[in-house]
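It is worth pausing here to work through a concrete case rather than discussing structure prediction in the abstract. The textbook approach is simple: state the sequence, then state the predicted structure, then interpret. We follow exactly that order.
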Amino acid sequence: MKSTVEPVEGNKVKLSIEVDSKAFEQEVDAAFKRIAREVRIPGFRPGKAPRKLIEARIGLEAARGDAIEHAVPRFYSDAIREHDVDVIAAPEYDLTSTVEDEHLAFDAVVEVRPTVNPAGYESLRVTIDSPEVTEDEIEQQLERLREAYGQLEAVERAAEAGDHVLIDIVGARDGEPLEGLEADGYLYEVGSGAVVPELDEQLTGSSAGDDLEFTADHPLEGEDPIEFEVTVHEVREKVLPDLDDDFAAEATEFETLEELQEDLRARMTPVKINQARAQVRGLTADALAELVDEEIPESLIDSEVRNRLDDFFRRLQAQGITPDQYLAAVEGGAEEFLGGVREGATNAVKANLALRAIVAEKDIDVTDEEVEEQLEIIATQSGEKVNRVRKEFERTGQLSALRSEMRNQRGLDWLIERVELVDEDGKPVDRAFLDTEDAASEDSADEGSDESADGSPEDAE
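Step two, the predicted structure:
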């Protein structure tokens, strides 16, 4: 096979491929064998009739047509691998030989991954949350602990937000109490919004002995209003324990408040460092994407959108949620959700292209040994033997993509080492703090206890 590559209009190249008569004859012979399994020749079992009989029955051109149909995609793939063409869409074929010819020749025009120029990438500045635990954050943790140990005490004053009131409540329509809206001795937190907003409005400023009557909108749109009758029996204030050594000894295993504070700092530090590390990686990629001014092929963005949706909905279905159910319930509706996915996909594609440019400019590469290590990781995760995984990657052309992704990750690491990091106040972030080894050792324990830190599904979404 002979092949050449030349650029054509837009972001495309043309591969001109020619297969000599000897190699093409092998394809024609294979075509006759395929056809023999379908054509019935008296006296011969399917697939056993000689080529000459099949050729006499259907003609040489029919077999050549079948050979062309099967051979063109394969020879095209061989040419793509030979010239290391980074295609991003399906090709358009143009046959330049005919079925009468003994050789095969065709052109393939295909869109390729564009190159971009992320000018200014060596002077990026990224703002992240400070990885250091502040005194305010420790105080917030202590306040949560105090809240957990707070006690309700009756007070002789009007109810305020945050107080608890002991009430009898009846919600009715046309004089008939509604199920779930009738209770005696119900302890309700003012301002919680647990029933209807009007209840909180009425209870604020009320005192023990008050009888309240009011009408509230039904929580469900289109339903008739609800008539409420509420009797306030008692107002209770949450009294928090003093923040001192006695409280620390009672609420925790520590003897002093200072020991408790130091323990909180020790527990929170690796969590904040890991969050900051994730921010550095994600925000650096986002900042890099903003440097890309070139127009991005829609085919690349569409492919990334499909990959993200497939992955996201696969995880939803593992939880028993169908795509239709999720899209019906998602805030903003399906259109806004899909718009967010596309925006995230566009930024990811831009960042990927920019990283490829950096990798090429800085001659960043990975070794065969490192690729093999990654294949071993993939094999372990999939429960397959590494030789089988390697062969499958080679057969499908994914080995080059794997190496490219590894280069990109190394390129991002290179860039992260050089990006300027500042906190929300514009102060430089000490990189030595982010490199603390203790944080890495806490990953598995702390990530599980701090799931709320990154609760949104996928970055687009």
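Step three, interpretation. The longest helix spans residues 257-289. DSSP finds 16 helices and eleven strands in the chain.
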